[in-house]
Structures are given as C-alpha cells and as structure tokens.
C-alpha cells in the first residue's frame, strides 16, 4: 500500500550530476553536517544526567524539579517529532533544519546562563522543540538526497551516531562537569549547532513535498497529545507511582488520544499525517518493533550499568561513562557494517543476527556479572551486545524509511525517532522496575542484625544503603556487602527478562520480518528546486 506520487525530480543543484544527485564529495559534507546536528540533539538527551547534584545545589531545587529539567526536553522532543517532521516535508527540509538549529542553539545559550530553575525549564522545553525540528530532518535529508547505492551506508553512519552518540555525549559532559561546572555542559551542543548550521547552509539541498491535500491539523494535535501523555506516564510512573492521579490522568489522555489519532488517520487515508495502514506491511511493522525493543533494552542496561559502576565498584561518573565507550564504539562500527550485510543477505537475516547477538550479550552479562568480578565480568556481554544492537538498528531504520514514499520522508524519519524515544522510556520504566523489585527481594534476606532504620533505608536502593551504612554500627560492612550483592541479583533478574524479550522479538522477525530489500524512497521523492549552494 503506497501513497507514492509520480516521480518529479528537480533540476540539479550546483556541483551535482545532471540527474539532480549531489556528487560524492558533497554527499560526504551533507552526511557530516546532519550527523553533527544529530550529535548535538543526542548529547543533550543524556548530558544533564551527570550534573543532577550540581543543578540541585545551584537552583536550590528538589529532586522532582531536577528530573523535570531533564525530562521536559525528551517530552517536548518526542511529542513534536511527527507534526514537525510532516511540516518539514511541506515547508522544506533545509529551512526546517536551519530554523531548528537556531531555536536549539539559542535555547542552549539561555540554559547555560539560566539564573533560576524556571528559566532552565523553559529553555529545556524550547531545546526540545528545536530538537524535534532537527532530528527527523537529519535522516530525511539522507533518504531523499542519497542515491540507492550510497543510502544504506549513510543510514548506517546515522544510526551509529544515534545509538552511540549518547554515550559519547555523556562522557564529554562528565568531563566538562569534572573540569569546570555544569554550565559548561551547554557549550558542546551549542558549538555543534554552530558547525552544523554553517555546513548545512552551504551544502544541504532543499527538498519538499508537493501535496494536493491540506495539512492534517487534527492528526498533528492528537499525535502530540498521545505521545506526550504516554511518555509522561513512562517518565513519571516510577517517580510518582503507577496509581497516582497524575499518572492515571496522563494514561487516560495518552490512550484516548492514541485511539482518536488512529481512527482519524484511517478516515483521512492518503491525506493522513501518518498512513497507519502501512503498519500492516512487514517492513514498517518489523522495523518499528525491532527499534522499540532494542532501544528499550539498551536504556534498561544503562539504568543498571551506572549504579553498578558507581555504587558497586565505587567508580566516578567520568570513569563509569568511559567504561561504556567500548560498547558504543562497537555499536557504531556494526551499524556501518550492517548496510553491507543487508545488501547481501537481506534485512530480515541481518536484523535477526543482530537480535540473536544482542540477546547473547544480555545472557553473558546476566550469567557472568558479580561484585568480585568487577568490570571484566560485564565487559564481554557489553561488547557482544554493542555489536548486536549495531547490526539490528541500521536495517530497522531502513525498513521504516523505505516503507513510506520519498515525499513523506520527514514523517518516516519522525516515526523512526518516536519509536526510539518510546523504546527508551519503556526500557527505563520496565527494566528499572524489575531491577528495583529484584534488589528489594534479595536485600530483605540479607538484613538480619541491621538496625531497623538503616535496614528500611537500605531497601530503597543500593546508593541509599551505602549512604546509611555508617549508621549500622558493627554491621556496616555487612550492609554494604548485602546491598552490592543484592543489586547484582536484581540486575540478573532484569537481564534475563531482557533475554526473554529478545527471544520473542527474534521469533517475531522469523515469522513476520521484512523478506526483501526495502523500497527506494528517494527515487519517488517530489522535490522543489534545490538551492544552488556550493
């Protein structure tokens, strides 16, 4: 089922071959520009996590306020991806990218200079708006500009940056906090934005949808409400409680808006913001499901790895982030390799290999992790999982973007990004909950002889147990040992659950995964004349 229009190719931009495709040198510049812009967005997702105590002291803010400063960026980003991706298709991808970079950069400067928590919250919200303008366009520029023979490799580079860029961003953020202070966290994203803006202004061609339909305003508004409501539930449920009034209201809004969005889009059919009928096709369904699970498991692993490095092994935030770099490097390398493998054996085989490898990595971590074994007990599993995630992300992204026509690549890219955001939120909420419940169940059996007050605090988490250990008197070392061992027990429970989810996904791919190479969206793109920038 397709909404493709007859091909209408623009005149060639300056420096490109006659058929309108930029030459190899310009394509490299375009790829660098969009990846630098993407890195700015990804780095800002995770960067503030390393500075939570500093922010609390600087603004005299509660933990709840600090979490909102962090989460409001992701909430704004996820909620606006689909409508802004669609607007980029209509308005022009280059103008949308440049405008997003300006909004994002100005908001970053304001955040870095923020005198209060209220100003910081507003700046982070506008950063999310700018990021929602940038992120889907970076991928849409690749899929609508690169020819078929080069597109897969370019998407592999993009997915590598999207997957591993968060770890690199956390490492650089932790280094900046250690070397200076939290305000310097915004220097890196702003600097990346400036570089991306200059490169995009000179090299990125413009393309846009020429549609005979009016913009789907109702679909856009219901999509915002649906995504915002569901992401709010996943972010706030663990903090407020799953039965808290605010959580239930968010769930009601999210579910109601989702049902309304699907019903409205089915009615709009070819004029819809997102043609939901396409989810009946193997490529879109398989790619979306794979990205959802892979990013969910990755986020859940990070929830466990950081406390393991810091609370169990006693490492600093900077060293803990550095410990993740081998996994990120292999993920980025495997993402680039995946496009070649997909061309040889097909997307289903490549995605299946990635899922099996990632599942094996999870199993290795679950089986080998220990307090005494330290970093070497988790490193083999981390490396194996990095390879598996890299192999699965690129063909999944290609499957999603290939399922929609060229003039809808902003929407396709936004759907890809929304799926990643939902997967991340789900992984943090669900695997984090399994980790917490596993820890509490294990630590209860190890608190004999510990004073009641210290024991109650220790049940809240491993960091709480270490903080209160000096109140346990002669049982302080026993409490520390019990908390660390219990954390590992809880982690193993969460990892084995992840292995089970990966196994189910693998079976799903075998039965309903994409069988053939994905369609070639760029050949069907409807372009306005590209600019003549050199």
From TrEMBL:
UniProtKB keywords: Antibiotic resistance, Membrane, Transmembrane, Transmembrane helix
InterPro entries: MFS, MFS_dom, MFS_trans_sf
Places the protein is found: Cell membrane
PROSITE patterns recorded: MFS
The Major facilitator superfamily (MFS) profile domain, residue ranges: 30-515
Keyword Membrane assigned: yes
Region (Disordered): 1-21
Pfam families according to UniProt: MFS_1
Any single GO CC term annotated in Swiss-Prot or TrEMBL for this entry: plasma membrane
Molecular functions per Gene Ontology: transmembrane transporter activity
GO BP annotation list: response to antibiotic
Membrane topology, as annotated: Multi-pass membrane protein
Protein's name according to its UniProt entry: Integral membrane transporter
Native source species: Streptomyces pristinaespiralis (strain ATCC 25486 / DSM 40338 / CBS 914.69 / JCM 4507 / KCC S-0507 / NBRC 13074 / NRRL 2958 / 5647)
UniProt lineage: Bacteria, Bacillati, Actinomycetota, Actinomycetes, Kitasatosporales
């Amino acid at each position: 089922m397709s909404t493709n229009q007859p091909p209408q190719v623009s005149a060639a931009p300056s420096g490109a071959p006659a058929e309108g495709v930029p030459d190899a040198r310009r394509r490299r510049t375009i790829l660098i520009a969009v990846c630098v812009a993407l890195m700015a967005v990804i780095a800002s997702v995770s960067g503030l996590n390393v500075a939570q105590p500093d922010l609390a002291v600087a603004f005299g803010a509660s933990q709840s306020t600090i979490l909102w400063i962090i989460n409001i960026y992701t909430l704004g980003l996820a909620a606006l991806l689909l409508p802004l991706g669609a607007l980029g298709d209509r308005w022009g991808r280059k103008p949308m990218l440049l405008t997003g970079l300006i909004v994002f950069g100005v908001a970053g400067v304001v955040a870095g200079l923020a005198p209060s928590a209220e100003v910081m919250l507003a700046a982070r919200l506008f950063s999310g708006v700018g990021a929602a303008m940038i992120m889907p366009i970076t991928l849409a520029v690749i899929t609508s500009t690169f020819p078929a023979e080069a597109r897969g490799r370019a998407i592999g580079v993009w997915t590598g940056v999207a997957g591993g860029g968060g770890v690199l961003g956390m490492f650089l953020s932790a280094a900046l906090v250690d070397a200076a202070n939290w305000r310097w966290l915004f220097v890196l994203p702003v600097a990346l934005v400036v570089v991306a803006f200059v490169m995009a202004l000179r090299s990125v061609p413009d393309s846009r949808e020429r549609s005979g339909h009016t913009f789907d305003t109702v679909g856009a508004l219901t999509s915002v409400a649906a995504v915002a409501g569901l992401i709010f539930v996943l972010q706030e449920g663990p903090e407020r409680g799953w039965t808290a009034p605010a959580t239930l209201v968010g769930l009601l809004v999210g579910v109601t808006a989702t049902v309304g969005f699907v019903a409205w889009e089915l009615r709009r059919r070819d004029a819809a913001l997102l043609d939901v009928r396409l989810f009946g096709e193997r490529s879109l369904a398989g790619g979306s499901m794979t990205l959802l699970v892979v990013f969910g498991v990755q986020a859940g692993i990070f929830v466990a790895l950081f406390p393991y490095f810091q609370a169990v092994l006693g490492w600093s935030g900077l060293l803990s982030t550095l410990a993740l770099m081998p996994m990120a490097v292999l993920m980025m390398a495997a993402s680039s390799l995946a496009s070649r493998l997909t061309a040889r054996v097909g997307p289903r085989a490549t995605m299946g290999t990635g899922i099996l490898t990632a599942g094996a990595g999870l199993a290795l971590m679950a089986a080998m992790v220990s307090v005494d074994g330290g970093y070497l007990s988790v490193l083999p599993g981390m490396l194996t999982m990095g390879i598996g995630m890299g192999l699965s992300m690129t063909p999944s992204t290609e499957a999603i973007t290939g399922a929609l026509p060229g003039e809808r690549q902003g929407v396709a890219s936004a759907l890809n990004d929304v799926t990643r955001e939902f997967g991340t939120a789900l992984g943090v909420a669900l695997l984090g909950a399994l980790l917490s419940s596993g820890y509490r169940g294990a630590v209860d059996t190890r608190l004999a002889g510990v004073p009641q007050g210290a024991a109650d605090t220790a049940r809240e988490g491993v960091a709480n147990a270490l903080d209160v250990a000096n109140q346990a008197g002669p049982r302080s070392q026993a409490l520390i040992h019990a908390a660390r061992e219990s954390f590992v027990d809880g982690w193993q429970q969460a990892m084995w659950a992840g292995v089970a989810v990966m196994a189910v996904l693998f079976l799903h791919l075998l039965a309903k995964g994409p069988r053939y190479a994905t369609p070639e969206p760029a050949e069907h793109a409807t372009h306005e004349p590209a600019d003549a920038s050199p």
